[in-house]
Each structure stands twice: as C-alpha cells, then as structure tokens.
C-alpha cells in the first residue's frame, strides 16, 4: 500500500502539463501490454492491473488540479 501512496503523492507534486503527458504515456503502455497479453507474451497480469490503477490515479490527480484551478479563477462574491 505504501508504494501506491507514494505514487499518487508524487503525482500531486507535478504540474498539470506533466500529469497530462504522463497520462498519454500510460495509455501507450497499456496498449503495449494489451498486445503482449494477446500474443501470450505477458506472464502475469499484475503489470496490466498496476498500469490501469496508476492511470486512474493520474486522472484523479488531473481532476483535482483542474478543480483547484477553476476555484482560483472563480470571481469573488
């Protein structure tokens, strides 16, 4: 569990551009892993599961960052 917590904590320290680039890179990784699964070259599905989980965490971090930006840009009442 500590490894997952470290990943999302580290992702939160980066800016939005980095998170978007990392999401794109993770999609490429997932595509490659899907091909490896299809060809029978992947022995364990754990890599695939971890990649999906980290991608979901990156989407969560991106959403948090975008919401924070919207809150900063909202006009004061």
Q: Could you explain how this protein is built, in words?
A:
Helices cover 82% and strands 0% of the residues. The longest helix has 28 residues, at 46-73. By secondary structure, it is mostly helical. The model has no long low-confidence stretch (mean pLDDT 90). It has a domain at 22-71. The protein contains three helices and no strands. The radius of gyration is 16 Å and the shape is elongated.
Itemize the secondary structure elements and their pairings.
Elements: H1 2-12, H2 16-39, H3 46-73
Fraction of residues in H or I helices: over 70%
User: How much of the sequence is in beta strands?
Assistant: under 5%
Distance between the termini: 42 Å
Give the overall shape, derived from the CA principal axes.
elongated
List segments where confidence is low: pLDDT < 50 over at least 5 consecutive residues.
Answer: none
SSE-based structural type = mainly alpha
Name the average pLDDT: 90
Keywords:
mainly alpha, 3 helices
Summarize the structure.
This protein has 77 residues and is mainly α. It has helices spanning 2-12, 16-39, 46-73. The chain has a domain at 22-71.
């Amino acid at each position: 569990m500590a490894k997952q917590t470290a990943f999302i904590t580290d992702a939160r320290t980066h800016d939005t551009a980095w998170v978007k680039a990392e999401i794109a890179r993770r999609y490429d990784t997932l595509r490659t892993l899907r091909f490896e699964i299809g060809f029978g070259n992947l022995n364990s599905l754990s890599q695939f599961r971890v990649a999906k989980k980290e991608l979901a965490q990156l989407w969560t971090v991106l959403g948090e960052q975008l919401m924070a930006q919207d809150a900063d840009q909202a006009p004061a009442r």
